[in-house]
């Protein structure tokens, strides 16, 4: 059952904000029978998970299909404490924003090359634009299955990487590209991300960044934003390899694209996941349907809460329904880290109060 929270009322629908235009409830195939929450005796003795779920459901951007299940998971995580927790997160459009203050679409880590190529080599920039025009609609097509999309995504990623290799960019150029994109606000972290990342480092909670983007760009960007790459971060991504002249010579294998964040690309990560096997509580953050499977490398998982940033059209009820199937918590058009931070704060607070 889906939960709607609006002005203190519950109904079998989807949580939405008065500022977000949502589809009619019946278009989701759900009954619309609002019931006011008037029986406060139900909440006289709330555990930590129940208290947190109530706080989350007051936020207008929060959608939760099964609040009872999520409440139980939250209680388990809170009781387990920070020493049993690990975070697995995507980067592009998860830790970073998808749109700027004027509504313009921002860049991904691959997009850093697209943006700068237009400036230094218009012909190369046109090649990147053509790739996006061809493959982006396929990535989000509702008429193709994931298995049907995969060959196209592999072609898109490999062709893009080949263009980068042919251009023989140097380490210094790549760093300049990231710096330019950052100064032009083409990549922006969600509000609250720096504090969230530094809190994870402070509490020694492992953060696995599982990205289909370009890992070198992530490292450079974080170093510029935070003045360091936090030591608790473990990066799984497409990495550029440079030759002795610091010219990009190859990309790491296996290729990681949107729909292959699974066991097929983490075969070299066994030792790492074994090292943190005692961290059986997983908080997963993603923005695509493929991201919801990023926890495949976890050796032992007792509790996983999956948070999905829904950056799509809120009128697309079919896509939204898929997100609600794949994620425990779906956040609508949310440019902040408010919800993950609330969960982290509760876990850390309980630990500190012991």
Automatic annotation (TrEMBL):
One of its GO terms (molecular function) is nucleotide binding. Its main location: cytoplasm. InterPro entries: HAD-like_sf, HAD_sf, Pyrimidine_nucleotidase_eu. It comes from the Eukaryota. Its EC number is 3.1.3.5. It is found in: Cytoplasm. Gene3D superfamilies: HAD superfamily/HAD-like, Pyrimidine 5'-nucleotidase (UMPH-1), N-terminal domain. GO terms for cellular component: cytoplasm. Keywords: Cytoplasm, Hydrolase, Magnesium, Metal-binding, Nucleotide metabolism, Nucleotide-binding. The keyword ATP-binding does not apply. Belongs to the pyrimidine 5'-nucleotidase family. This is 5'-nucleotidase. It comes from Diploscapter pachys. The lineage of its organism: Eukaryota, Metazoa, Ecdysozoa, Nematoda, Chromadorea.
């Amino acid at each position: 059952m889906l939960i709607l929270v609006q002005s203190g009322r519950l109904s079998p629908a989807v949580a939405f904000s008065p500022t977000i235009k949502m589809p009619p409830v019946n278009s989701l195939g759900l009954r619309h029978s609002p019931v006011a929450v008037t029986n406060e005796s139900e909440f006289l003795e709330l555990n930590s998970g129940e208290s947190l779920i109530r706080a989350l459901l007051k936020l207008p951007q929060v959608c939760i299909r099964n609040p009872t299940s999520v409440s139980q998971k939250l209680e388990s995580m809170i009781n387990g404490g920070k020493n049993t927790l690990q975070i697995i997160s995507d980067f592009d459009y998860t830790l970073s924003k998808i749109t700027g203050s004027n509504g313009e679409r921002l860049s991904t880590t691959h997009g850093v090359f697209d943006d700068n190529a237009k400036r230094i080599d218009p012909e190369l920039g046109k090649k990147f634009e053509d790739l996006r025009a061809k493959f982006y609609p396929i990535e989000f097509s509702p008429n193709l299955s994931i298995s049907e999309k995969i060959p196209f995504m592999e072609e898109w990623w490999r062709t893009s990487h080949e263009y980068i290799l042919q251009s023989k960019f140097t380490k210094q150029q790549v760093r300049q590209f990231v710096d330019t994109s950052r100064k032009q606000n083409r990549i922006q972290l969600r509000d609250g991300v720096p504090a969230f990342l530094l809190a994870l480092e402070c509490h020694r909670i492992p953060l696995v960044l599982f990205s289909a983007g370009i890992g070198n760009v992530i490292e450079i960007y974080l170093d510029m934003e935070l003045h360091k790459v936090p030591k608790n971060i473990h990066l799984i991504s497409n990495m550029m390899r440079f030759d002795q002249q610091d010219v990009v010579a190859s990309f790491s294998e296996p290729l990681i694209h949107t729909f292959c964040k699974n066991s097929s690309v983490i075969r070299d990560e066994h030792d790492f996941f074994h090292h943190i096997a005692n961290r059986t509580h997983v908080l997963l953050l993603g923005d695509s349907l493929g991201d919801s499977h990023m926890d495949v490398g976890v050796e032992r998982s007792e509790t996983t809460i999956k948070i999905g940033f829904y950056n799509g059209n809120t009128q697309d009820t079919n896509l939204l329904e898929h997100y609600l199937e794949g994620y425990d918590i779906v956040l609508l058009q949310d440019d902040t880290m408010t919800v993950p931070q609330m969960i982290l704060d509760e876990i850390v607070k309980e630990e500190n109060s012991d």
